[in-house]
Write a structure and sequence with these properties.
Order of helices and strands: EEEEEHEEEEEEEEEEEE
Distance between the termini: 27 Å
Oligomer: single chain
Structural class: mainly beta
Strand content: over 45%
Radius of gyration: 20 Å
Helix content: under 10%
Number of domains: 1
Number of strands: 17
Largest sheet: 15 strands, antiparallel
């Protein structure tokens, strides 16, 4: 894979896309606390892994516009809700590009007006209940469907052929016209014969919004090498993004 810069990236929040107002992503982190369990007979530290965490921090430009700009950063962040938010960072807008998602609490909405007249803001989102998850974008940035259909194939890699540690997936619906759209993920061993991945179906969406679905702690569910997203329902316009995470090791609830 060729190296690349950070151009053309997006950051989605609860189904909204304020990327044009986000000027810098300062932090996408997945820290884990540890406990020192070093026995008195050891010559070096012994540690065990404990709670996983996640964080996303970013800077933004002032955009308080109300007229037809629901994606303006001020509209998306100003409410500072106490409920969970879902944040997804798309590292590019190509199919299979890396994507990072977390369920989070937005802990601030801070602005600074400098003496040169510039107005800059910073927001921090801290993980809640789950750690951060790096996966792959199954929708080439944001995908637009005008009718139901199968998405293009994403190759998760030849080695190993499959993982048996479960999965998680994150959905942002950024625009919708119609009755409902249901998004699910299928997997395949050969990119030819497809089956629905068990339980990997989001609840039917009827408006802008977000969802997360994942396997339980200790899952041994297998995800085969190839995956794709499939849409169904009655609609004339559904714009959405899906981050799919295939767990590479036994872990906390995914």
């Amino acid at each position: 894979m060729a190296k690349s810069g950070g151009m053309g990236h997006r950051l989605l929040i609860d189904g909204y896309d304020p990327s044009s107002d986000i000027t810098q992503v300062n932090n996408l982190s997945t820290p884990m606390t540890t406990q020192d369990v070093t026995g008195i007979d050891k010559y070096g530290h012994e540690r065990i892994g404990l709670l996983h965490d996640a964080m996303a921090e970013f800077n933004h430009a002032w955009n308080p516009s109300n007229a037809g700009t629901a994606d303006a950063i001020h509209q998306v962040l100003r409410g500072l809700p106490t409920t969970d938010r879902q944040v997804t960072y798309l590292a590019g807008q190509t199919l299979g590009a890396p994507a990072f998602s977390l369920i989070t609490k937005q802990v601030n909405y801070d602005w600074n007006r400098a003496n040169d007249g510039s107005m800059t803001g910073t927001t921090s989102c801290q993980g809640n209940s789950y750690g951060g998850a790096w996966g792959v974008n199954l929708t080439a940035g944001k995908r637009t469907d005008t009718v139901a259909g199968n998405g293009s194939t994403v190759d998760l890699g030849a080695v190993p052929i499959s993982y048996s540690f479960g999965w998680s997936m994150y959905l942002h619906v950024t625009a919708f016209t119609g009755t409902s759209v249901t998004i699910k993920v299928q997997d395949s061993a050969d990119a030819s014969a497809w089956l629905d991945l068990a339980s990997a179906t989001f609840v039917a969406a009827t408006a802008i919004g977000n969802q997360r679905v994942g396997t339980a702690a200790g899952s041994t569910a297998t995800v085969r090498r190839y995956v794709r997203v499939v849409s169904s329902g009655t609609f004339t316009n559904a714009v959405y993004a899906v981050n799919f995470v295939r767990n590479e090791a036994a872990k906390y609830p995914s």
